[in-house]
Recover the amino acids of this structure.
């Protein structure tokens, strides 16, 4: 755990704490940082397009996905 002093917009911090349902400012900032990191990592996936790092047939993979039936329940597709 890292301890630091931050100068933050008080109104923004209050609103973020309320919207997040957190009890402390520290937990609010931790949550915001975790969300930032998650989104930044997810964005990196787009950089892999055309790089050749992943090989596979997406259409083939999707054929194996669960398909909904008339009852709304998922039924495994048969190859």
């Amino acid at each position: 755990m890292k301890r630091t002093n931050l100068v933050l917009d008080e109104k923004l911090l209050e609103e973020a704490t309320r919207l997040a349902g957190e009890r402390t400012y520290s937990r609010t900032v931790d949550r915001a940082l975790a969300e930032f990191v998650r989104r930044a990592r997810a964005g990196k996936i787009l950089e892999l397009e055309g790089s050749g790092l992943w090989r596979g047939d997406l259409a083939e993979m999707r054929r194996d996905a669960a398909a909904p039936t008339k009852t709304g329940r998922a039924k495994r597709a048969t190859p």
The chain has a mean pLDDT of 83. Residues 7-48 form one domain. The helical segments are 10-20, 25-44, 58-63. The beta strands are 66-68, 74-76.
